[in-house]
Structure formats: structure tokens, C-alpha cells
């Protein structure tokens, strides 16, 4: 099963949707989590269906910011556990073998003053169940200062609070595939800023012990 988390800019433009359609046909993920769609739920549903995903949960944007969508193919059954403008939490059953796992699409608050609420939400979602649990999305925060290039230095207090939340949930970083930085702005070297804000976390049972991994 292939799962992708993606912050796609410009979903309200037909040209972007056409490019997304072609890309998804080539990659063919079973589950995809869209972050910051900036669309109301009815418009996001239309985009999702155009891309070949009739099944999904769409959380509308607030004005011109936010918006989430979790979409999936027909070869799995998805039960909604909870959702908000910061997360979509579901239980997924694979039709081929009946295996179950939990998936939480997560969107950390962009505003520094609201980030503590995001970490408390993450703690609340950790129900210590034995079902494998994947948390994936945009946390809008760094673990370490080297995860940012350009611009002002990130506050050590902010990073410590993020690491504490992950420690409370027994999540640990195991690396990445692809580009190191997942967010970028500024076209010129003097103004360019790059950060690693997107991650994914997995909890599974190993030899009778509960092991959790953060990608």
C-alpha cells in the first residue's frame, strides 16, 4: 500500500488539477493526504473525484488558509475516528488480507503562539492502542536547527517543545527519502529560506513490545 502526504499549491487552478491528475495516475497511491488545500469542502471533493479518488474526507479551509483532505482507493475500507481543521484520524482495513492500521493526517499550527495546542492534540490522539498507527503531514516545526537554511534562527524553545511532544508519544526520527527540505520560499539566494516541516510517524507491535517511529 502506497501513501503520500502533499501540500499542493494552486488546487483552485484547472492547470494544477490537470498536472495532479497525470502525476497521481503515474504514482498511483492508495491513500493521499492533502494539506492546506485552501478550498471549501465541496470544491475539494470535486478536485478529489477528478483525480480518481471517489472516497474521501474533506475539511474546508478557513477563508484563504488551511483545508485538509484524506482520499483513498476502493481496495480498502476507511472508518472515520475524528477530525478537525488540524487533523483527520481514520482506521483503515485492507480488503486483500483484512489487516487494520490507523492513519492520522496532521497539520501543525502555522502560528507560533498556537503550536502548543497542536502538540497537545497530538498527545490526545495517542490512545496507546495496539493497532499500527501512522501519523503523517506538515508539523510546521523543526526538530533541530540544521533543518533550516536561511532566514532567522528558529527558537530553541520552539524546537524543544516539539521534541517533548514527540517524546511523550514515544516517536523518534528515522530519516527521509527525497529532498531534505520540504518547504521553500524566496527565489534569490539572499532571500531563500528552506525548512524541513513535513514528517510521518509509525507505531507498530514488534516482539510484544510497542515501537513507534517518526519518519
TrEMBL record:
Domain Endonuclease/exonuclease/phosphatase residue range list: 4-184
Gene3D superfamilies per UniProt: Endonuclease/exonuclease/phosphatase
Molecular functions per Gene Ontology:
catalytic activity
Query: What is any Pfam family matched here?
Result: Exo_endo_phos
Superkingdom to which the source organism belongs = Eukaryota
Instruction: Output this protein's name.
Output: Endonuclease/exonuclease/phosphatase domain-containing protein
Q: Which organism is it from?
A: Hibiscus trionum (Flower of an hour)
Amino acid at each position: 500500500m502506497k501513501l503520500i502526504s502533499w501540500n499542493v499549491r494552486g488546487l483552485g487552478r484547472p492547470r494544477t488539477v490537470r498536472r495532479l491528475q497525470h502525476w497521481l495516475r503515474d504514482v498511483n497511491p492508495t491513500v493521499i493526504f492533502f494539506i492546506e488545500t485552501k478550498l471549501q469542502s465541496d470544491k475539494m471533493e470535486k478536485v478529489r473525484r477528478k483525480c480518481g479518488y471517489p472516497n474521501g474526507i474533506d475539511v474546508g479551509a478557513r477563508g484563504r488558509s488551511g483545508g485538509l483532505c484524506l482520499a483513498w482507493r476502493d481496495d480498502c475500507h476507511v472508518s472515520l475516528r475524528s477530525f478537525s481543521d488540524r487533523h483527520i484520524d481514520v482506521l483503515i482495513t485492507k480488503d486483500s488480507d483484512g489487516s487494520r492500521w490507523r492513519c492520522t493526517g496532521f497539520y501543525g499550527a502555522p502560528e507560533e503562539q498556537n503550536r502548543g495546542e497542536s502538540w497537545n492534540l497530538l498527545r490526545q490522539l495517542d490512545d496507546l492502542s495496539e493497532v499500527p498507527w501512522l501519523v503523517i503531514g506538515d508539523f510546521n516545526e523543526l526538530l533541530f536547527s540544521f533543518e533550516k537554511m536561511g532566514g532567522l534562527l528558529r527558537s530553541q524553545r520552539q524546537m524543544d517543545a516539539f521534541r517533548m511532544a514527540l517524546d511523550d508519544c514515544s516517536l523518534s526520527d528515522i530519516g527521509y527519502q527525497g529532498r531534505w527540505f520540504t518547504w521553500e520560499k524566496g527565489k534569490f539566494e539572499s532571500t531563500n529560506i528552506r525548512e524541513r516541516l513535513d514528517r510521518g510517524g509509525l507505531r507498530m507491535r514488534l516482539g510484544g513490545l510497542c515501537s513507534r517511529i517518526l519518519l
